[in-house]
Design brief:
The protein has 100 residues and is α+β, with helices and mostly antiparallel strands. It has helices at residues 2-6, 10-17, 56-60, 85-98; strands at residues 21-24, 45-48, 67-71, 77-81. The protein folds into 2 domains: 1-65, no CATH class; 66-100, no CATH class. Helices cover 32% and strands 18% of the residues. It is globular. It starts with a helix and ends with a helix.
């Protein structure tokens, strides 16, 4: 799979060489997946590209979906992952209450 994608592209080949787990397949908004971490839709699959984490695929089936929130030094907030609207609302309320 990776060979077809990176044919003639050194930048893509380098990125894939540094990648342990690839989520393959386009996001499809009509097939939302809230059961598996790191994917957006049910058509996407996990492809293990290295051997650093041999049991990773087995562990994913038992991992709940997560949300990652990062705040940079300037206060810019980025959200990655999936959460229901009420969960995001609770997080935002907590953020508003903690400002000084």
């Amino acid at each position: 799979m990776a060979a077809a994608v990176d044919a003639g592209r050194d930048d893509v080949a380098a990125l894939l060489a540094a990648t342990d787990l690839l989520v393959a397949g386009p996001f499809q908004a009509d097939r939302i997946d809230t059961r598996r971490p790191w994917v957006g839709s049910t058509n996407q699959e996990f492809v293990l590209l290295g051997d650093r984490f041999p049991g990773l695929l087995d562990e994913l089936s038992g991992s709940p979906d997560r949300i990652e929130i990062t705040v940079d030094r300037a206060g810019q907030v980025a959200v990655n992952g999936w959460a229901e609207s009420d969960v995001l609302d609770e997080l935002l309320i907590g953020l508003r209450g903690s400002r000084r």
